[in-house]
Description:
Strands 1, 2, 3, 4, 5, 6, 7, 8 and 9 form a nine-stranded mixed sheet that branches. The protein folds into two domains: 91 residues, Spore Coat Polysaccharide Biosynthesis Protein SpsA, Chain A, CATH 3.90.550; 153 residues, no CATH class. The longest helix is centred in the C-terminal third of the chain and has 14 residues. It is of the alpha/beta class. It has nine helices and nine strands. The chain is 30% helix and 21% strand. The radius of gyration is 17 Å and the shape is globular.
Amino acid sequence: MDNVTFILPLVNVESGLENTLKSISAIATENDSVIVAGKETVLSEIDGTLSGFSLDIQKVVSNGENVYSIVNDAVMECTTEYFSVIECGETYTEKWRKNAELYGKNCSVIIPLVRNIVENEQPFLSNEMAWNVAFVEENEIGAITLDFLEKYIDVSLSGAFFNTEDFISAGKFKPSMKIVSWYEFLLRFAYKKKKIYVVPKIGVYRPYKKEEENLSKDEVEWLITTARQEYFFTEDRNKKFDGEK
């Protein structure tokens, strides 16, 4: 990965922005760039924070209503071979870039282990199931395949590196899939025979919080079922849950 664009999507102004930018500074090279994307009103509130960094930061105005549509808009401004998405408050580990390059050669998506920090509770890992020998076939350890995704849906893409060209050609994220957009994307990528790999190293620290979208259990189940039907299609067909406008 000679060059990378680090994308920081902002739905709202949140705490933790400065720490996230510091962690990008620690792993970025002079060939890299940073995109902070969101609505114009949101971006105007963070000018003071952005000016405190020597990073090459580009602001991209997006009218997307969720993080997935904001990322899609930002990716279209990428000129680098790879990009990575990190949300406000999350931080990269200092060795994540080097570990991704070491383990992720020729991969379309390189995924870290994510250490979730929970207030007053023990931290826990995301993505470790890809390395569970009791769960995956020995010749597929670390790989995210259709078979894996049929059995396990809780894969975090925080801090992952994506091949930009592959991401765009596969159709980008489908914002209509809401909180399962990551999952539907992985299904689609695996279906298209793209190589997706989980590096057995912690790459991101994430303050854990439950999804804030106010979705019923029935809608979440519908979204998961719909994702398993829609990954055959490149475009977002904007399926709607019953009762949704």
